[in-house]
Amino acid sequence: MKRALATFLRALALLIFIVFLGFALLIWQVDRLGRRDDARAADAIVVLGARVNADGRPGSDLTSRTYHAVDLWQAGYAPNIICTGGFKDEPLSAAAVCRRFAIELGVPADQVFLADGSSSTIEDAQSTAQVMAGHGWRTAILVSHPLHLYRARWLFHRAGLEVVTSPTTTRVSQISLPVRLWYAGREAGAIVVTELDGWDVVPPEWIARLQRWSYGLQ
Q1: Please, what is the Cα angle at 147 between 97 and 144, to 5 degrees?
Q2: Quick one: 124 exposed, middle or buried, by C-beta within 10 A (0-12, 13-18, 19+)?
């Protein structure tokens, strides 16, 4: 009996170590991708939504994402920009504010599209897939905060799109290590939660709590 218990505990310890190692590897991948710009020619540049200020102007994250998308457009990487996020047909949604800002920066209105009606990166991917399918587009460059891009790319691939990533000018190396680990861990956790949600092995209330914690970073 003692021997069986010892064997079980060793196996359990090994399993915990493997899970921890796998999660650590995922965090490293999130951090690593955020340091790399893979922009190349595509059908569209997708700006992932972020906070809008009370006065209707884009918040700091949305500002930097839109600026970067316009820089890519001006450099000729793609002829179109898709702005995501927020309630559909809402003038102050992240998508609508991003679109207005991109037009102010010189992008023709007929080359900036809305993929609104979304409140998470999963829904951003689904809305963007619909817009792109409607125009016969297949490839896109994702623009967002560096530590958001690994999960975003994964979700857009799940939505059937060919995407590469291009982070904003936020330098990952300049983010303090504790903050960087927190956000990278949160992104990695969101990936795990999304996978668990499809397995039907974890109680729904647990999944809901984990989603509220892990899906906060846009």
Answers
A1: 25
A2: buried
Give the C-alpha separation, 151 to 154, whole Å: 5
Q: Identify the CA nearest to 40 among candidates 66, 67, 76.
A: 76
The pTM for the full model equals 0.83
Kindly give the residue spans of alpha helices, DSSP state H, lying in the chain.
2-33, 60-74, 94-104, 121-135, 149-158, 177-199, 204-214
| Amino acid 88: pLDDT | 87
77-94 pLDDT per residue, tens = 999 999 999 888 888 999
pLDDT tens figures, 147-177: 999 999 999 999 999 999 999 977 776 777 7
| Residue 120 backbone dihedrals phi, psi, to 5 degrees | -155, 165
38 residue type, one letter:
D
Query: Is 23 exposed, middle or buried, given 0-12, 13-18 or 19+ CB atoms closer than 10 A?
Result: middle
Comparing C-alpha atoms, which of 191, 170, 156 is closest to residue 44? 156
- Class of domain 44-172 as given by CATH: alpha beta
Q: How many CB atoms lie within 10 A of CB 3?
A: 7
